[in-house]
Design goal:
Elements: H1 8-33, H2 37-47, H3 63-87, H4 99-114, H5 120-134, H6 139-154
């Protein structure tokens, strides 16, 4: 920042951006480690989230939004996964994708199908940014295309 104070909208966007990244990390951790949503949400709340200036090991995030994303993906996975599967190229299924890509698509798909309080373009842009944090190859473009297709199905009037 340029020394200017954040307005409430900027602060909310920053905290939600951190929550999205943390949600993708939590979903990945759940899949790889076989942990449940409640355990992972508790771990993040107890050991990873903190207030601004609390130390580099803590991340400031919208914790309630994070919890809604993680719990929502789990709660709606039977709806979100098949919807994303249907949008993938022939011969591709969610199981064939990298675990991080799956976590990003699940979180983004959940937001697009279940959280109409967030504009579709914002959801897509945010998860492409998350993908860029993890990948340098073609994955961010793939995620952009998949979430764009998902948004056209979930919210045809918005795009």
């Amino acid at each position: 920042m340029t020394g200017e104070a954040e307005n409430p909208s900027q602060a909310r966007a920053r905290l939600r951006r951190s929550a999205r990244l943390a949600a993708v990390q939590a979903l990945y951790q759940m899949e790889i480690g076989g942990l449940g949503a409640k355990a992972v949400i508790k771990e993040f709340r107890d050991h990873r989230f903190g207030a601004d200036g609390e130390g580099p090991e803590f991340v400031e995030a919208d914790e309630d939004f994070f919890e809604d994303l993680v719990a929502g993906v789990v709660r709606k996975q039977a709806v979100v996964d098949p919807a994303i599967d249907a949008l993938l190229a022939d011969g591709w299924r969610m199981e064939r994708l990298d675990a991080t890509v799956r976590a990003i698509l699940r979180a983004g798909g959940f937001e697009l199908f279940q959280r109409d309080d967030v504009p579709a373009r914002v959801v897509i842009d945010e998860y492409v940014d998350v993908a860029n944090a993890f990948f340098e190859g073609s994955e961010p473009k793939f995620i952009n295309a998949a979430l764009d297709k998902c948004a056209r199905q979930a919210r045809p009037d918005e795009l």
